[in-house]
């Protein structure tokens, strides 16, 4: 009851100077709001990065065949046949940390259509375990399997966007689609991942939703390919989680360069390294934004000290009267610290609301991902309360040290 009464008295005192109190609150509101918005955006960016990396596979190494003009390609093919299934098999047999692999072959797609509509999607041939290594989820039907691979089956798995284009009514399973000159039966549809960005650290993502997947054997044997083209367009190799991806990538690169006669006709993508780079960038962003938010809170704290010092001057007679009727120095200190603490609490609460609103506005106009973080709210509110408490101590001490007789005689 004592603390409740103190809080009520403090609030009533602050309410007598509404405009001055509001102006003092603004520093705390902006500081807390900035901290919450910054941490929410940082949390959202980290979760978005994890979703993107998950689509590539954190413990995967991706090898892509490079594209060259015809003249360069002819010269390179004198020394290297390009990326092949044999590369993956040799890597799997030679490097003990590679646990599995999958391959992809891009098909030169002229047209894809169903009885309902056509699509500008691209057809690709993939190994049976491609979807396991890529962590893609199925929305309907089944994935490609080893039997499809062995039988050169004419079956297809559709990306979510491709399925909507070809089958607007949503009845894709069991239907027939035509890719170039061949008909395929639809056996499954991929789940569309919720990704706000289509690129991560220079690597394009989300293309699978605009693709048609068929067995790799079917793609290699039933579709034409350029004489100088690589056997496969990319390889995805899963590595043991206990091995450093950077070290694994160096060993794989060395092996492939030996097999390709040191011809630079492939590029290596390391999802784990991309994630580390993203985290480092995000950490720098967080530090900069934390400094800005901290300065704002510091300014707010100075504002609280300023108003409390002004309050001491205004209420000198009141302080003298309180001391005359028996109030101790401790009572005076508690009263003034309570007022500065109340300002910081109110500023913190309003700052939380402002921070949530600011996060939504930033997300809406910049298309950045935002994830609510209770840690951000508690941390920023606690810092705000601590700032109010610290900056209120000096004015409280100064008020408590006033001489009662001189205070009563002041104008």
Automatic annotation (TrEMBL):
Membrane topology according to the record: Multi-pass membrane protein
Domain (ABC3 transporter permease C-terminal): residue spans on this chain: 291-404
The keyword tRNA-binding appears for this protein: no
Keywords recorded for this protein, A-Z: Cell membrane, Membrane, Transmembrane, Transmembrane helix
Principal cellular location given in the protein's record: membrane
Highest taxon, organism lineage: Bacteria
The keyword 4Fe-4S appears for this protein: no
Residue intervals passing through the bilayer: 21-42, 287-313, 334-358, 370-394
Subcellular compartments: Cell membrane
One cellular component (GO) term of this entry: plasma membrane
InterPro entries: ABC3_permease_C (IPR003838), MacB_PCD (IPR025857), Macrolide_Exporter_MacB (IPR050250)
Coiled-coil positions: none
MF annotations from Gene Ontology: transmembrane transporter activity
Record-annotated MacB-like periplasmic core domain positions: 21-254
A Pfam family this chain is assigned to: FtsX
Assigned protein family: Belongs to the ABC-4 integral membrane protein family.
Protein name per the record: FtsX-like permease family protein
Source organism per UniProt: Pseudoalteromonas prydzensis
